[in-house]
Structures are given as C-alpha cells and as structure tokens.
Design brief:
Number of strands of chain A: 0
Radius of gyration of chain A: 15 Å
Number of helices of chain B: 7
Shape of chain B: elongated
Largest sheet of chain B: none
Mean pLDDT of chain B: 87
Number of strands of chain B: 0
Oligomer: heterodimer
Order of helices and strands of chain A: HH
Helix content of chain B: over 70%
Number of helices of chain A: 2
Distance between the termini of chain A: 39 Å
Largest interface: A-B, 20 and 31 residues
Order of helices and strands of chain B: HHHHHHH
Radius of gyration of chain B: 20 Å
Chain lengths: 64, 141
Amino acid sequence: MNAGMGFKLSHLQAMLLFALLISIAFGFLSRRRPIERVKYIAWSLFLFLLFGVAIGWAMYPFSR
Amino acid sequence: MADETAATAATAAPPQDSRSETMAFVIGIAGWLVPGLGHALMKMWGRAATCFLTVGILVILGAGMRGNLFSSRGNDAFDALGYLADLGTGTFYLVARSLETNGADVSHAGGDYGTRFLATAGVLNLLAALHAYEAARGRKA
C-alpha cells in the first residue's frame, strides 16, 4: 500500500469517518459496560455531526 | 509506639509502590510506542483492539489523503506542535512515513483533512497511553 492509491473522500465522508472513529475510541476508553459504550458512542457521534454541520452553516455566510 | 509503627509502614511501603509505579510507566510507554499495547498488557483486550484499530485507520487514512506529516525540521512553533502530535502515534509515525512515498499535498481539502487525521491519531494515542498508565496505577478502570 502506498500513497499513490490516495483516498478521495468528500467533506461529508471525511467528517463521518472522523466522528465515527473518535466516538468509538472515546466510548471504549471511557466506559466499561457494552450498553454504556454503545450509548456513549451514539451520543458522541450525534454531537460530533450536529456541531460539525452547525459550524459549517455558521461559516456559510462568510464563504463568499 | 504508634508513630514508630506508622513510620515502619511508611518505609516498608515504597518498594512495592515504586515497582508498581515503574510497571505503570512501562505500560504507558508501551501504549505510546504501539497503540493498544498498554491496554493489552493489562488484558483489556477490547480497549487494546480499539486503540490499535482507530489509531491505525486514522494514520492510514491521513497518509492516504496525503496529509502533512511533520518532521523535526519545522519552521515555526506550529510545525513543532504538529510534529509532537504526529509523534504521539509512536511507531505508527514510521508507518505513515513509509506510506507517504509521494509526500504531502495540502493544496486540496483532502490533504488538509489528512493532516488533521494524522495529528488526531497521535493525540488520541497519547490519550489512550495516559489512560493505560492511570489504569495500571489503579486510578481508572
């Protein structure tokens, strides 16, 4: 595998992947019981996406 | 008499404390060098696998998106901070180096995202190593 293969991700795909990976890591590190982990991951993922989209829209007026 | 007993207990305790402290330190360093190894040494398999996979995937994605992998020869403080963050991935820093044969390309958004992915992988691994260290000291479970 080398950089020549290159990953072409859209903004949304990059944000989704980033949010999902970080949420999973946070969930496993901060919670012990499986059900608590799932809840934490879902909540964290939701907040990541919510804030990502909200900040995106907040910057929209200044993008042109 | 009670003071003497307390003093004896205090002097007798340090060897074991220092041994467990050293062990915790070794676990922390191991967790930094190889993501997940610190937790694996404590038989926390789920956390070990998660750390290894999440840090590994972030590094592969970051390098694949041609993110900027900082080196020690930075020009300013931001480069130095980026280098510290990238170093957080431990041996995966070398993996990212070997994957980025064509070098970084931050002229497009993907490259810029890749830079963040690499830095995040490093900081996340440092957090995981610190968690393993604290767990080894009995402060976290």
